[in-house]
Amino acid sequence: MTTASATVDSVVSVESIEPPMRRAKAKGNAWLTLGLAILALVWVAPLFLLVLTSIRPLSDFVAQGPLAWPKEFTSANFQAAWRTGNFATTYRNTALIALVKVPLGVFLASLLAYAIAKLRLPGRRAVMYLVFLGLTVPIYIAIVPNFVTLRMMGLTDNLWGLLGPYLAFGIPFEVLVLQSFFRSVPDEIIEAARIDGAGSVRIFFGIMLPLSVPALVTVAILDAVSTWNEFLMALIILNSNANKTIPVGLLNFQGEFANDNTGLAAGILIAVVPILLGYTILQRWIVGGLTAGATKG
Amino acid sequence: MTATAIRPRSATARRVQLRGGAGAWLFALPALLVYVMFLVSPALQSLFFSLTDWDGLSPSYNLVGLENYVAMASDPVVATAVKNNLLWTIVTISFPVVIGLSLAVFLNSHVYGKSILRLVFYTPSVLPLVSIASIWGWLYNPQYGAINALLRAVGLGALAQPWLGQDATALAAAMVPAVWLRTGFPMLLYLAALQGIPKELYEAATVDGANRWRQFWNVTMPGLKQTHLIVLALALIDSFKVFDMIYAMTYGGPGTATQVFGTYMYFNVFQYYKAGYGMALAVAITLVAIVVSIPYVRSQVREEAR
Q1: Three-state secondary-structure class, residue A129
Q2: Taking the domains of chain B in order of start, what are their residue ranges?
Q3: Among positive and negative, which fits the CA dihedral A241, A246, A252, A255?
Q4: Cβ neighbours, 10 Å, residue A38
Q5: What is the DSSP letter of A186?
Q6: Mind listing the pLDDT tens digit for each residue in B192-236?
């Protein structure tokens, strides 16, 4: 909203200086906005249909078809989907692993990023190659040996078996973004602290981390999204319903609800609502961090 | 290292940096240990298993050299997977990049509701791939799906078909949601980069009589050179990782029509008990992924290791 009004202001003020050219442009803007709005409607249509289907009874959906506006509304689909989809369990599991994995992963990655960016880590070129190559490697190459290792440790069909692999999978991206942010912290601040007698540990906790809160938050959010969404490792490690995470649970649920379109829609929505809400609220951080991390290079 | 030569520092500072040395490894080790244990070492173990006839269950196996790699050459499913991975790479890079760039250029001009539009186009990117597969599987449903219903509603009922259930359309149908979900990210990157192109360049071009189209090719595109490289590299890397979408939407089918390396590896290891062969598939696609993305990795290291 604020951006829209700001745009209007700037258009108006420029218009008073240079009327003929600007008026032509303002007209173009209306068409452009219309075109983009139509495309946006197409883009959001699958999600809109999903919401619409989830709040109508199955009989109404079958009788009228998926595109018609519902004649009746209901919340029963959500109750049925929540129970059948075992969502109470999968929600708890996904939240638990994310709550432990994300802070721990970001912390470990920031230690490494600090060593690379500011501590002149010996051999850091090799370390950077090793870590950044991890960005390019498809995860499925590590799946089977990890499965074997976890089976040996008795950690298959155990939520916490996911912790090690998840930490490892997240490290390349976290380190890439964090070390590039840490690098922008002025050396003068660190040198001043050194002269005052602060060691590397105190500089890390007292200067690097507090100055890097925006980057840490962004990395944590993106890490939480990918942890919430991870599928392959969870599919292979977790067997029993009591241990499944949301993506694996959703896949089973999809099979069970094959003929109940409204229930399926409700279930999909239950699985994605936290991500959608979180994204909408935190999008400023996500956008800022993604673009800062990637446009730097 | 070279920084000291460029920018003279005080004697204290130099001593500080030397002192960083060995102690720095204490900071680096925890993350590196986890990383090596759960990603580097498993990848190398996969490389080793790809040289064996291991079935994935029994404790014993024999070294068979490059037999698994040789067998790939005569496996018709591998030929399908190569074709599918290639098509997947081309389509899910070109469409998202072109659409994302266009959206960014349009959103960067004076448009109303810019932040809402940006939100809408990026939203699919944060959804779990499995849920995206569920949503689209549901839209594609031959009987109750919205896509066939829409075709019937506008009188094109003859075109209604089981999109995911037939060889001719299954892969293309699986690519549509991939494009839907992968357009937002290039858009964001381009949008950020566009804001860094000085307005004066456009004003100068306007004075010189260049129209919008000419300005786009002569001012905008050169200004985005760096971003193009990053967008393409990240899209390329991403496209090799395809697994979730195919697994959840088509399960590699119908038949083997939509198998890609990732899913075919999974089937070999967990369904056909040919783990050695499956690992060879994973190694092959990983090597390709590494080779094509080495320039990107090198640029990141160079940029940062100054």
Answers
A1: helix
A2: 75-304
A3: positive
A4: 10
A5: -
A6: 888 888 888 888 998 988 888 898 998 899 989 888 988 898 888
Contacts of A204 (CB under 8 A, 6+ apart): A111, A114, B27
CB < 8 Å to A5, chain B: none
B195 touches chain A (CB under 8 A): no
Contacts of B301 in chain A (CB under 8 A): 125, 128-129, 132
Q: For residue B56, what are its two tokens?
A: 């994935």
Identify the domain containing residue A160 by its residue range: 82-295
Q: Any idea which residue has 């799946």 for tokens?
A: A143
- The answer to whether B66 contacts chain A (CB < 8 Å) is no
Is-contact B105 B194, C-beta < 8 A?
Answer: yes
Rounded to whole angstroms, the Cα distance separating A112 from A256 reads 45
Q: Which of B40, B39, B43, B95 is nearest to B235 (CA)?
A: B95
Q: What is the pTM of this model?
A: 0.86
Residue among B111, B138, B189 whose CB faces A264 most closely: B138
Phi, psi at residue B63, to the nearest 5°? Answer: -75, 130
CATH code linked to domain B75-304: 1.10.3720.10
**Total of domains in chain A:** 2
Q: State the nearest Cα–Cα gap between B62 and chain A, in angstroms.
A: 17
- DSSP state, A242? G
Closest CA to B20 of A164, A117, A100, A259: A117
Q: Which of A44, A132, A225 sits opposite B300 (nearest CB)?
A: A132
Both A75 and A99 in a single domain? no
Same domain? For A172 and A256 the reply is yes
A1 Cβ contact list (under 8 Å, min separation 6): none
Q: Cα separation of A203 and A113, whole Å?
A: 14
A230-B122-B179 Cα angle (round to 5): 75
Nearest CB to A114: which of B27, B243, B279? Answer: B27
Which chain B residue's Cα is nearest to A151?
Answer: B57
Under a CB-based contact definition with an 8 Å cutoff, are residues B53 and B67 in contact?
Answer: yes
**Whether residue B17 has pLDDT greater than 70:** no
Element (H, E) at A56: none
What was the ipTM of the complex prediction?
A: 0.85
